[in-house]
């Protein structure tokens, strides 16, 4: 089931939650920190983007369903400087929200997270990813279904890939979830910033039905589980 701003109803348990708001037409630009190597679609290859980091900072690119919820969760963590919602891992350069929501571009709704590794570790971020969102449902997160809602860890280097595999093993061993974790660890290829109206969506529209019915309960549960990692 697709997430649509201010649109059709979503079934969550026994409650029907009206879907998200009619999305405005917003300008879309590639993040200033991201340089695109290809501006055209090439079915034979995956486009790549380069990430330029501030001094003493690192980046994590993570996906686990709707980026409205993901952004609202990760921006609350101590040590996180910046959270950018966007589209990652697909075959189409500079995709639009409409194109990604069709489920044919290969992109996942994702976050590009800039953080201070002296305050919060990559493993800490992955713990939040694998515990706050359900990593056991393939191509689905709650009421949202399709490959664009899949759970993915896009590793920027071999160290991140190793930490990701170790963290998945730890969460699995702790039996946090009854079903097996299906989140893959994939080499980072590209990330494209989402349209401006997606930024800080939850905080700007807390009474919107999808935000109040789906995201708010997730945030409450996240805050209860990760109290020691929250910003003051």
Order of helices and strands: EEEEEHEHEHEEEHEEHH
Shape: globular
Q: Unreliable segments (pLDDT under 50, ≥5 consecutive)?
A: 4-43
Q: What CATH architecture label applies?
A: 2-Layer Sandwich
Q: DSSP strand (E) fraction?
A: 15-25%
Which fold name corresponds to the CATH topology? Peptide Methionine Sulfoxide Reductase, Chain A
Per CATH, the superfamily is Peptide methionine sulphoxide reductase MsrA
Characteristic key phrases:
232 residues; alpha+beta; Peptide Methionine Sulfoxide Reductase, Chain A; single chain; 6 helices
Structure description:
- The chain is built from 6 helices and 12 strands.
- The strands form 4 sheets. Strands 11-10-5-7-6-12 form a 6-stranded mixed β-sheet, covered by helices on one side.
- The protein has a single domain, classed as Peptide methionine sulphoxide reductase MsrA (Peptide Methionine Sulfoxide Reductase, Chain A), CATH 3.30.1060.
- The model is unreliable at 4-43 (pLDDT under 50).
- It is an alpha+beta fold.
- Helices cover 26% and strands 23% of the residues.
- Helix 1 runs parallel beside helix 6 (209-225) and helix 3 (122-132) crosses helix 4 (158-173).
- It has helices at residues 67-74, 97-101, 122-132, 158-173, 201-204, 209-225, and strands spanning 9-12, 15-18, 34-36, 49-51, 58-64, 80-88, 108-115, 140-141, 144-145, 151-155, 185-187, 191-193.
- Strand 10, helix 4 and strand 11 (185-187) form a beta-alpha-beta unit.
């Amino acid at each position: 089931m697709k997430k649509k701003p201010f649109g059709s109803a979503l079934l969550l348990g026994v409650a029907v939650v009206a879907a998200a708001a009619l999305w405005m037409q917003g300008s879309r630009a590639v993040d200033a920190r991201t340089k695109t190597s290809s501006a055209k679609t090439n079915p034979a290859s995956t486009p790549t983007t380069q990430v330029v980091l501030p001094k003493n900072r690192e980046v994590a690119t993570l996906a686990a369903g709707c980026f409205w919820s993901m952004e609202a969760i990760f921006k609350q963590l101590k040590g996180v400087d910046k959270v950018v919602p966007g589209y990652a891992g697909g075959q189409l350069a500079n995709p639009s929200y409409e194109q990604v929501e069709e489920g044919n571009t290969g992109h996942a709704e994702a976050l590009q997270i800039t953080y201070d590794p002296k305050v919060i570790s990559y493993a800490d971020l992955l713990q939040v990813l694998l515990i706050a969102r359900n990593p056991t449902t393939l191509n689905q997160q709650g009421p949202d279904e399709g490959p664009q809602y899949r759970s993915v860890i896009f590793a920027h280097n071999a160290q991140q890939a190793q930490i990701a595999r170790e963290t998945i093993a730890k969460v699995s061993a702790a039996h946090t979830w009854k079903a097996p974790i299906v989140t893959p660890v994939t080499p980072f290829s590209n990330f494209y910033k989402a349209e401006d109206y997606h930024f800080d969506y939850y905080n700007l529209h807390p009474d919107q039905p999808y935000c109040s019915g789906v995201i708010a309960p997730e945030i409450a549960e996240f805050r209860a589980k990760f109290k020691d990692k929250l910003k003051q």
